[in-house]
Amino acid sequence: MNPPLKKLPIGIQTFSEIITEGYTYVDKTAHALALANGGKYYFLSRPRRFGKSLFLDTLKELFEGSEALFRGLDIHPHWDWSRRHPVIRLDFAGGVVQSPEGLDEKIHELLGFNQRRLGIHCEATSIAGRFAELIIRAHEAGGRRVVILVDEYDKPILDSIEHPHRIAVLREGLKNLYSTMKTQDAHIQFVLMTGVTKFSKVSLFSGLNQLNDLTLDARVATLCGYTQTDLATTFGGHLAGVDWDRLKRWYNGYNFLGEPVYNPFDILLFIDKGRVYRNYWFETGSPSFLLKLLQRRQTFLPALEGIEASEEILDSFDIERIDPVTLLFQTGYLTIDQARESFDQWLFSLRVPNQEVRQALANHLVDAYTGRLPSERLNWQKAIYDPLTQGDVAGLIAAIQRLFAGIPWRNFTGNDLPEAEGYYASVLYAFFASLNAEIIPEDVSNQGQVDLTIKLADYIYVIEIKLAPRQARRAPTAPESVGDEGAPVLARDGAANPALAQLRARGYSDKYRGLPGKGLFEVGLVFERRARNLVQADWCAVNGATD
């Protein structure tokens, strides 16, 4: 008889509870040993719910010498358990900071908690003075240097990310706290700061520029997250008989220059909920600010499929000039696909990590870019999905026109989103991505690149999108077929359609001819600013290798 399966540590970030209460634990203590022996000041950025808090709590118990908790783990025979260090833990995860006064109050509460836990009385009243005194007195009282662990160091700033006028003051308040550590180096044994984003050293870490950033360090690529081996061993009983390929597609794929990892939160809830594939991680945090930023910057959404960025862009978050790529990477909506060195700097190709993020992010983008409620989304998705999977181009075109006709443009009053060709491509990309279609944006051939290639249910749609000149709006010609009243003209030759004419003249679909499948279609879509809709749509069917 197989032994009973261990409990799942869902939401538990306390190392002692996981060990003493018999919860499943993925051993990360080898990483803890390497960090403790290899340096002094560290910084680690990872997306939310990747196990940062649990790792910090593991370090706390380790430096405090809680030997019984580590028996049987990798680090146990390699650690000097006679050495016990006082640990100061600053955790900004709880509560919401909405003002500089609120930040000061939060910091004083954290310092007071550590004073009481360590049995230390401090006389200083300023934040910097109180923190410095706490470090010095803890060293003197215990006879060993202090360990400082900071969790969610950036949360007070992220709480106000939609209020830039607050952020400069909040940033100075945090800098005042963190820079204290530099002046107390003689009393400090070890420091690890963790968060979601990494602000530039100039903006937040100017007083603590000795931090060793581990975010893109291959040696700790698997410090947070579960590897495939972790799932096969630690969770082998829980996942017996699972479709590993499908599990990987849904939840694996986060890459920090090493072995890809799964988000722990996804795996734990996937098991707990009866192994049902759902958006567990994504739905726990609303990317509302990110979506607003993408809209405000008129981000061309199809470009998310093929971004290449330098290490500088991925490495630092500048609140005065937020780069959407930086925010997408640091928050986990993009991850590293490949890295290469060019002109003496590292370049990183990025991608969406997995199906969960792709589908859930696309749904949110659909809602943001169309201004419709989530409850209204499903009908639009079905209206587009059905013709896509049936090779019904006329039905697809009619659905696209109804979609744009239904967008409440009052939501975009005061901006020029509908003025840009990229907006229409972005809305279509978001819808296609939400249907889990395979999308190749700016699909390259030897004659150039087409806007979108969509693959779904063995059908391939090669789509070129144009924006009609302001003064021009094509008068209807005799169509071969016409959809609902007001639908765009479907002239099969497409001679007067600039999008289809370019597509055919440059042979954008040639590389797909002759491939096995149900059908290949060339589609030219022309949108018009004033109508804010599709005003011309023409297409050609290419059957197999036959022109």
Model description:
With 547 residues, the chain is of the alpha/beta class. 36% of the residues lie in helices and 17% in strands. It has a five-stranded parallel beta sheet. A five-stranded mixed beta sheet has the order 9-10-11-14-15, with helices on both faces. A three-stranded antiparallel beta sheet has the order 6-8-7. It is elongated, with a radius of gyration of 27 Å. About 5% of the residues have low confidence.
Offer a concise description of the structure.
This protein is of the alpha/beta class and 547 residues long. It has 19 helices and 15 strands.
**Amino- and carboxy-terminal Cα gap:** 63 Å
What is the helix tally? 19
Mean pLDDT: 86
Strand order of the largest sheet: 2-3-4-1-5
In the predicted model, the low-confidence regions spanning at least 5 consecutive residues are 411-415, 472-494
State the share of residues found in helices, binned by percent: 25-40%
Total count of strands: 15
The helix-and-strand class reads alpha/beta
Shape: elongated
Using the CA coordinates, give the radius of gyration. Answer: 27 Å
Biggest β-sheet, characterized?
5 strands, parallel
Instruction: Tell me the β content.
Output: 15-25%
